[in-house]
Amino acid sequence: MAFRAHARTRGISVELCTIEDPHPNPDNYLSATGKPLEPVIKCIAYRIVRKRPLHWRRILPIEWQLIQTQDARSVDLPAGWKWNEPVDELPEALRRALAKELQRLPDDVITVAESNYIVSVNWREKGGSDALEGVCSFLEKLALVTTPPN
Fold first, then answer.
1. Residue 35 belongs to some domain of the structure
2. Model-level pTM greater than 0.90?
3. When you count CB atoms within 10 A of the terminal residue's CB, does the N or C end of the chain come out lower?
């Protein structure tokens, strides 16, 4: 609870959430009777609103999602991260910020995403205060990235 209270003082919202498991192992999602269960993970979402440029109504909304995985290799991302779906129209400033700032995140972050100018980090909260600082710093840096006009 102290982590969440600290994040709130920095302008970051925090909520419990359930997300689809990006790496579902079917053996992990069976009931005691052998019935298949939904492949979902309960985690904590840390969110911040990314600064909207003055012309935000004239640009297409930006939506993207990154998944942290051991075997991920991408040219434009640090090792361990991959795009959930290829994103062609991502502004260069945002790509650079992601490539630089993803390294701050702890190993127990599951996904990072943006939808409607809200950047989210879905996290298991297993690290200490350094991990919290990494998540908060990541979100604060991404919140300042503005999108240039088309």
1. no
2. no
3. N
